[in-house]
Amino acid sequence: MAIEITKPRVIICEGESDVAFFDHLISNRGLPEFQALSANGRTGYESVLVALSAASGFNELAGILVVGDNDLDPATSFRNIQTQIQAAGGYGVPERPGEPAKEAGFPAIVAMMVPWDGRTGCLETLLLEAVREVHPDLGVCVDGYAACTHVDVWNETELPKVKLQSLTAVICRSNPTVALRYAWGQREDIIPLGRPCFDQIVEFLRTFPDLIA
Questions:
Q1: Range of the domain at 85
Q2: Which is nearest to 11 in space by CA: 19, 21, 3?
Q3: What's the CA gap between 74 and 58, in Å, rounded?
Q4: Do 152 and 207 fall into the same domain?
Q5: pTM score of the predicted model
Q6: Mean pLDDT calculated for residue range 63-81
Q7: In this structure, are residues 190 and 131 in contact, taking their beta carbons and an 8 Å threshold?
Q8: What is the pLDDT of residues 22-39, one digit of tens each?
Q9: What angle do CA 108, 74, 117 make, to 5 degrees?
Q10: Same-domain status, 147 and 204
Q11: What integer pLDDT is reported at residue 1 of this predicted model?
């Protein structure tokens, strides 16, 4: 894996949908520059960190933010990130989410867990909240759909994804099969990024340069 560093700070996300979210959130909210990269799954952080350390311009990087879903067990999900940072070699290993770690010769590194520290769920948990805030009537309908199809018993990681996909198909009439990573390039405003449910993440990204200074 070869990486070209193009921004002063890097975000490493679980997947391409997360990359699209952060790219559009940063632009929408006027946040500091970050280059978002995909780990292609929750086991891929180590390989991205290794590739970053070999990239031209690595020594000029101000900081790295590793973002992961809490899923059903926030503590285990955070330990997964810690383990991969350590395995990549050279980097400091954060002791807690939101706290920077730094070793000589390496940029500061921070882990941020989604939806937020200690809260079970995933990125889709927040995206679903944003859509439901704007379309509460459709939210009621999708709840009924979930009950009718018996997916309402699925867990806190699975259920938001089903509901979000259903709402996206209904809202995006011009392209009802659109994948989440392309949701922000459609004619319709599917996921409004100005909603309050994103404010914690926005504030964290806004103050990130001071955190790692």
A1: 9-119+196-211
A2: 19
A3: 30
A4: no
A5: 0.96
A6: 98
A7: yes
A8: 999 999 999 999 999 999
A9: 60
A10: no
A11: 78
